[in-house]
Design brief:
The chain is α/β, with parallel strands linked by helices and about 400 residues long. Helices cover about 50% and strands about 15% of the residues.
């Protein structure tokens, strides 16, 4: 990342810190933290049982579902669904899971117009190159208003001034115009309630509502998002919001428990009143079954990277795809392999533990990274300088 982008990112992170500091130590937040840790621990330990319950709930609710073992499986399923609806334009919501499987690049390569509906993601999309996000909920936090103005003017052939509202209205108008004929919306989910078969999504912009109103709504979510019930799901997304944005609650919480339907005419069930006629949930494994349990506790708030000294120094070079910092490095081993884990920054981490101290569910990322370094070294992935020191010690009883 450029020095100017790192500086802007650090300023954005400072704003998040000051907002969250005012509420994260409140008694209600402390209670929510404790509850959130219990929910995630129980959910991961009982994932298979909750998954079975969830699938039965989906059947009851009329939600179609497919299991995807790998990212390739998920992509194939999405391709089939898009072909079924003859879609050439897709309304897409912000989703780290969709970033994990590189869906956007795949669809663009097939000449499908993927329209990001989140403002930050849309700005990065318009940027075209060097446009990797830097935070799970603030993807464009590293771009200042001058740069954003240039991006919008160049990409949309516009003439907006460096004024936030003017930029927002210009991008919004373009997005809505592009989505006029879109029949398919794709999103992730923040949490999934097994008992009710409900998917919870949080947002401030109202864009997920637009995505979910398309004829087909595809939802891609990791199996680690499953929790026992709707009350637990709401607790998790509230905790995520506090640590991601510094607010107690987002503007919108969408709870989707089935396709759009009505029975207001002689109690006869009709689908597709205003929203989706078909909701398809793709439950993604992609290495999660093999992952260290604590890695799966993550609620996606991004507070770890806000406080990480390494991430604040180098930015999104430290991490994997849309999973940033140490936790992203750890997940890359299970999603990809040891070499990817090494290349994602396995040895960048200082093991300082600030990520764990600032994690609402206390993921011991530094300990996970340390253990992974041992495993990585065993299969030959470690810095060459370390290897020289090791060899010198073996030969000379000295690192020199």
């Amino acid at each position: 990342m450029k020095a100017s982008e790192l500086e802007t990112m650090r300023k954005s992170f400072s704003t998040v810190k000051s907002r969250s500091n005012s509420i994260k130590d409140s008694p209600s937040t402390k209670r929510l933290e404790s509850k959130g840790r219990e929910i995630k621990k129980f959910s991961i330990e009982n994932n298979e049982k909750l998954l079975d319950q969830l699938l039965e709930s989906f059947k009851r609710n009329g939600i179609d579902f497919v299991m995807a073992d790998t990212s390739e499986d998920a992509i194939d399923i999405i391709d089939e669904l898009i072909d079924e609806y003859g879609a050439t334009t897709i309304a897409k919501a912000k989703s780290n899971t969709l970033g994990e499987i590189n869906l956007k690049k795949h669809l663009v390569d097939k000449d499908i117009d993927v329209v990001e509906t989140d403002l930050g993601d849309r700005i990065l999309q318009l940027k075209k190159t060097d446009n990797k996000p830097v935070h799970p909920t603030g993807p464009a936090s590293h771009l200042n208003i001058s740069k954003i103005t240039d991006i919008v003017n160049e990409s949309l052939d516009a003439n907006v001034n460096p004024e936030p509202r003017e930029i927002m209205e210009t991008v919004r108008s373009d997005v809505l115009n592009r989505l006029k004929n879109a029949r398919v919306g794709i999103s992730g989910a923040n949490a999934i309630a097994a008992e009710e078969g409900s998917l919870v999504m949080v947002h401030n912009e109202g864009n997920i509502s637009i995505v979910s109103l398309k004829d087909l709504h595809i939802i891609v979510a990791g199996i680690d998002k499953i929790v026992p019930c709707l009350e637990d799901a709401i607790s998790i997304v509230k905790l995520e919001t506090i640590f991601a944005t510094g607010n107690f609650v987002t503007s919108y919480m969408n709870v989707i428990s089935g396709p759009s339907k009505t029975a207001d005419i002689e109690k006869k069930l009709l689908k597709n009143m205003y929203g989706a006629e078909k909701v398809v949930v793709i439950l993604l494994d992609n290495g999660r079954s093999e992952a260290t349990e604590e890695c799966l506790y993550c609620i996606g708030c991004g507070n770890c990277v806000v406080h990480c000294p390494v991430y604040n120094a180098v930015g999104n070079e430290f991490g994997f795809n849309n999973y940033f910092g140490g936790r992203g490095v750890a997940m890359s081993k299970f999603i990809e392999d040891e070499e990817t884990c090494y290349d994602s920054g396995l040895y960048m981490c200082t093991l300082c533990g600030l990520c764990t101290l600032n994690c609402p569910v206390s993921i011991p990322t530094n300990e996970i990274i340390e253990n992974m370094r041992k495993l990585s070294a065993d299969v030959g992935f470690y810095p060459k300088a370390h290897g020289k020191i090791k060899d010198n010690i073996s030969k000379n009883d000295s690192p020199y």
